[in-house]
From TrEMBL:
Acts on leucine, isoleucine and valine. The keyword Transferase applies. This is Branched-chain-amino-acid aminotransferase. Gene3D superfamilies: 3.30.470.10, D-amino Acid Aminotransferase, subunit A, domain 2. Its cofactor is pyridoxal 5'-phosphate. It catalyses: L-leucine + 2-oxoglutarate = 4-methyl-2-oxopentanoate + L-glutamate; L-isoleucine + 2-oxoglutarate = (S)-3-methyl-2-oxopentanoate + L-glutamate; L-valine + 2-oxoglutarate = 3-methyl-2-oxobutanoate + L-glutamate. Belongs to the class-IV pyridoxal-phosphate-dependent aminotransferase family. Pathway: Amino-acid biosynthesis; L-leucine biosynthesis; L-leucine from 3-methyl-2-oxobutanoate: step 4/4; Amino-acid biosynthesis; L-isoleucine biosynthesis; L-isoleucine from 2-oxobutanoate: step 4/4; Amino-acid biosynthesis; L-valine biosynthesis; L-valine from pyruvate: step 4/4. Its EC number is 2.6.1.42. The modification N6-(pyridoxal phosphate)lysine is found at K176. One of its GO terms (biological process) is isoleucine biosynthetic process.
């Protein structure tokens, strides 16, 4: 069996430290250890954020990073909202391309890829700073070769609709930060144990939002419906890419509020599809919604045609099999 997603790492990573006034020169260091003061701000007050993006090998041998600018912009935004020191955007881009270039020969061919995990966190040794930002930080770029996400089969997912609790504090939603995942863990573990759900779809107050690590899309015939951007949830780069491709294909894209009631009503119709979007899977089909002890099949309960069509369109751009008309790839 192949190694689980994200458990294999390339032996080196790019790293830089902010000492309160400037970023240290970038170094390539072994990726299996990191020395931190036990009083480091991140360990106590979760001043940490990260990104997830991928590099793809094309048939001509080139290696191409997908939507690096978008991911860097989101990392800057996460860092600012957490009160972390400002990143040097150009240095971040160089560190990403440098790390990918270092392992270019080992980037798996499609459907595999090199998963890139830039991470930024507060390192100031100051445990009294519970309500004060860290003036010091560390930024590294860790990379992990990954295989076919659907190697175990492309099964449609079961989602528990949770309309009572929420994934994280609403003002933290658009920050890709560790604490948010910790906050979603209990509801997800409970849903797995109690109703064998794969994921929880958080719908605070009946407003369909997202799962623990992916955005939610409802596809009804020619229309694709998903929550409009606000600060309560994570602005997925895959979400944006899929919506762009859907518009290219002449689909109607509706970014608006979707209630649990409307979702359940629409999902029952034949031809309706639902999917989760994120970098790891691109689009994963949703077959069943579970709400208040009842199960609702989405469309036929299987894998939707449009879901597959959109996933293929995006994969084809990533894999160099279709023209990159939106300029999403950075060739290194
Ligand atoms: C990373 C993430 C997503 C998906 O974002 P992509 O940029 O598409 O990978 C969605 N929701 C949450 C909570 C996430 O952490």
């Amino acid at each position: 069996m192949a190694a689980a997603f994200g458990t294999v790492f390339m032996p080196e990573m790019a790293i830089s430290w902010f000492d309160g006034s400037s970023w240290s020169p970038v170094e390539m260091v072994p990726s299996d250890s990191l020395t931190l003061h036990p009083g480091a701000h991140v360990l106590h007050y979760s001043s940490t954020c990260f990104e997830g993006l991928k590099a793809f090998k094309h048939e001509d041998g080139s290696v191409n990073i997908f939507r690096m600018d978008r991911n860097i912009a989101r990392l800057n935004q996460s860092s600012q909202l957490l009160g972390l020191p400002d990143l040097d955007t150009e240095q971040v881009a160089r560190m990403i391309t440098q790390t990918v270039a270092r392992f270019a020969d080992e980037v798996p061919a499609p459907p595999g890829s090199l998963y890139i995990r830039p991470t930024h966190f507060g390192t100031e040794p100051a445990i009294g700073k519970a309500a004060v930002p860290s003036t010091m930080s560390c930024f590294f770029v860790l990379v992990s070769p990954v295989g076919d996400y659907f190697a175990g089969g492309d099964k449609s997912l079961r989602l528990l609709l949770e309309d009572q609790g929420m994934r994280c504090a609403p003002h933290m939603g658009m920050i890709k930060s560790g604490g948010n995942y910790a906050s979603a863990l209990q509801p997800i573990m409970k849903a797995r144990n109690e109703v064998q759900a794969d994921q929880v779809l958080f719908c605070p107050g009946g407003d369909v939002q997202e799962t623990g690590a992916a955005n939610f899309l409802l596809i009804d015939g020619n229309e694709i419906i998903t929550k409009a951007l606000d600060e309560s949830f994570l602005h997925g780069v895959t979400r944006d890419s899929i919506l762009t491709l859907a518009k290219d294909m002449g689909m109607q894209v509706s970014e608006r509020q979707l209630t649990v009631d409307e979702l359940l009503e629409r999902a029952a119709k034949p031809g309706c599809e639902a999917a989760l979007s994120g970098t790891a899977a691109v689009l994963a089909p949703v077959g069943t919604l579970i709400y208040k002890g009842q199960e609702y099949a989405v469309g036929t309960g299987g894998i939707g045609e449009t879901t597959l069509k959109l996933r293929t369109a995006l994969n084809d751009i990533q894999w160099g099999k279709r023209a990159d008309t939106h300029g999403w790839l950075t060739r290194i």
